[in-house]
């Protein structure tokens, strides 16, 4: 607007799944088990019987993030608290620490699909998120049905060559059948499951790396260069 900002990236309708503030003093705030934002005051469910959760919530809050997930046909909302300081140790039922933080230097060389880890305790080459299944065939099947259904229910929105007709300044209105909407939700569920598996594996990998040492050094990587190279090879 004023010519001094960065590039603006627009989200499509329905694709804005997270919002975060800059501090816990303005905007999205958490206080006394309540989320306060834009005139809303919503109670947050916190398990104070969980020792880890109870200890973590005692630290100073840096800022808050609201996340939305589409789970089994319904939207669920989560409040993420980004805290200052050192996270508490997780312990088992006997009070023993589950994961120790290692001592020493750990070197990481991260690629697009693999990660090389080197430390005094261990040296490994691991595939990133190897449990994530290939869903391209399932995706292709769902998208093919959605495209066929969209053409069948909106013939006036397409030209003879299959391209979408330009409506001038008017927004193109799409008629969606109940089966189309169900398929659309199934596709969201597939993406959500894959994302959860990937996030879980990344967390396990992070815990493993921390157990090897307390000084982490990462090889510089030109990710944009790797992406363009992968597209060229494809």
Write a structural description:
- The chain has four helices and ten strands.
- The chain is an alpha+beta fold.
- The chain has two domains: 1-98, no CATH class; 104-224, no CATH class.
- The protein has a four-stranded mixed sheet, covered by helices on one side.
- The longest helix has 35 residues, at 178-212.
- The model has no long low-confidence stretch (mean pLDDT 87).
Key terms:
alpha+beta; 4 helices; 4-stranded mixed β-sheet; 30% helix; 3-stranded antiparallel β-sheet; 234 residues
Into which percentage range does the β-strand content fall? 15-25%
Oligomer class: single chain
- What percentage of residues falls in helices of 4 or more residues? 25-40%
**DSSP, total strands:** 10
Spatial separation of the terminal alpha carbons: 39 Å
| Biggest sheet features | 4 strands, mixed
Instruction: Kindly report the spatial arrangement of strands forming the biggest sheet.
Output: 9-8-7-10
Number of helices: 4
Radius of gyration: 23 Å
**Total domain modules:** 2
The average pLDDT is: 87
Elements, N to C (H/E): EEEEHEEEEEHHEH
Indicate the structural class: alpha+beta
Low-confidence spans: pLDDT under 50, at least 5 residues? none
Question: What gross morphology would you assign?
Answer: globular
């Amino acid at each position: 607007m004023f010519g001094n900002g960065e590039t603006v990236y627009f989200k499509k309708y329905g694709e804005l799944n997270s919002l975060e503030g800059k501090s816990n003093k303005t905007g999205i705030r958490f206080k006394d088990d309540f989320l306060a934002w834009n005139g809303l005051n919503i109670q947050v469910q916190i398990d104070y019987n969980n020792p880890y959760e109870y200890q973590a919530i005692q630290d100073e809050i840096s800022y808050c993030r609201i996340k939305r997930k589409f789970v089994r046909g319904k939207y669920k909302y989560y409040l993420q608290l980004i805290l200052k300081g050192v996270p508490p140790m997780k312990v088992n039922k006997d009070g023993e620490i589950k994961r120790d933080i290692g001592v020493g230097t750990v070197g990481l060389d991260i690629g697009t699909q693999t990660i090389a880890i080197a430390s005094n305790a261990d040296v490994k080459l691991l595939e990133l998120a190897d449990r994530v299944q290939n869903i391209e065939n399932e995706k292709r099947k769902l998208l093919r049905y959605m495209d066929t259904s969209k053409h069948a229910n909106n013939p006036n929105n397409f030209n003879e060559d299959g391209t979408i007709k330009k409506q001038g300044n008017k927004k193109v209105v799409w008629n969606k059948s109940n089966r189309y909407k169900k398929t659309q939700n199934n596709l969201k569920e597939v993406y959500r499951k894959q994302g959860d598996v990937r996030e879980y594996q990344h967390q396990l990998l992070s815990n493993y790396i921390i157990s090897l040492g307390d000084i982490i050094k990462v090889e510089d990587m030109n990710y944009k260069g790797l992406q363009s190279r992968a597209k060229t090879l494809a």
